[in-house]
Design brief:
This protein has 14 helices and four strands. The chain is mainly α. The longest helix has 37 residues.
Length: 354
């Protein structure tokens, strides 16, 4: 290699590395940009009351996005999370109001803690069905979760004939009171849902970075065949990520019905789109093998701030959908550009070393 070629190679590698670093920081840049824009354009955007309200909205999307992150990292997708939200909310509301009718003249009522546990199990169960369809029956993740999307939404509608379970104050006699704490309660001035999110995010980040299961999740997404040949139980890993996604969706169903003190079967419609947008914007690659929980949380803040800021500016819901769609497209395009640039920089570094 001549001196001129060496200098040219160094410059190309340096330029590529700078662009690559900017792409890796795209979520922080986007968060900073939307904060500055709405702080200027929307009055009272940075008020304490609005920030707390916005954090509750962000938490709902962040729960779903964390589960979606693990699913996408393995190379899958989960379109059913929004319907699981609606189904789990209806399960909790129905158990609080009507209990469980055993059809033999007896009705069993559970206390609030048992209702929360049962609802979480329902969410995990739907996730397990997704996992079984994908791992045992070899159904494509898109088709499998699209099917459970309709099944879960239909079951939610059937549970009340399309109606709402209202006024979920509960009955002291059956221990079903206090449900509102999960959605409306506060601890040290912050909503309980924020604390739940913090605990779950730390646990998910620890799992992803510090446990064999976390390494297996990324290995499956990076190269499923190689992961299987190396001894990783690919089916079990996929089962876990879909069950975790269902668990996260169940939490959202509980929080929303608790906050509203009512359950509606249409709750959660299109939530999966926001979750996918937050995960991809946070750096999760749609082709699998790459993503972080921290990036997903920041991506959730970007989506949440964008949604609330547009509402405060009076932008119509239709235009909000257009803007969110464009955000997803741009995030995927940047992700693909990042992958190509990484390959290019790696090749230049190899050429330089040679």
């Amino acid at each position: 290699m001549t001196a001129a070629q060496d200098i040219s190679s160094r410059r190309a590698a340096g330029s590529g590395s700078l662009a690559l670093n900017l792409m890796k920081l795209r979520t922080f840049i986007a968060l900073f940009a939307v904060l500055i824009f709405f702080a200027i354009a929307a009055p009272n955007f940075l008020s304490t009351a609005n920030l707390i309200l916005m954090s509750k909205h962000v938490a709902l999307n962040a729960f779903l996005a964390m589960g979606m992150t693990f699913v996408i990292v393995t190379g899958g997708i989960d379109l059913s999370v929004g319907s699981i939200v609606g189904l789990c909310g209806m399960v909790a509301g129905g158990l609080i109001l009507n209990g469980l009718d055993l059809r033999i003249g007896y009705t069993v009522f559970f206390n609030v803690y048992e209702i929360i546990l049962i609802t979480l199990v329902v969410g995990i169960g739907v996730g397990a069905i997704n996992g079984l369809l994908i791992t045992r029956l070899n159904v494509a993740p898109f088709i499998a979760t699209l099917g459970t999307l309709y099944v879960a939404r239909g079951l939610a509608l059937l549970s009340s004939d399309g109606g709402t379970f209202p006024n979920l104050v509960g009955n002291p006699q059956f221990g079903t009171t206090g449900y509102a704490v999960l959605g409306s309660g506060r601890l040290l001035g912050l909503p309980v849902s924020i604390w739940v999110l913090a605990v779950l995010a730390l646990a998910a980040a620890y799992l992803a970075r510090c446990t064999p299961l976390g390494r297996h999740i990324f290995a499956v997404g990076g190269n499923e065949r190689a992961a299987g040949l190396s001894g990783i139980r690919v089916s079990r890993v996929k089962m876990f990520v879909y069950m975790f996604s269902g668990f996260c969706a169940a939490i959202v169903g509980l929080v929303i019905s608790s906050e509203l003190m009512a359950s509606h079967p249409a709750t959660g419609e299109s939530f999966e789109l926001n979750a996918i947008a937050a995960a991809v914007l946070g750096g999760t690659s749609m082709s699998g093998g790459r993503g972080t929980i921290g990036g997903t949380i920041i991506g959730s803040f970007v989506i949440g701030i964008l949604s609330d800021g547009l509402v405060m500016m009076g932008v119509s819901e239709f235009w909000q959908m257009v803007i969110k769609g464009l955000v997803i497209i741009v995030a995927v395009v940047v992700d693909q550009a990042q992958r190509r640039l990484q390959q290019r920089v790696a090749l230049l570094q190899m050429a330089k070393a040679a």
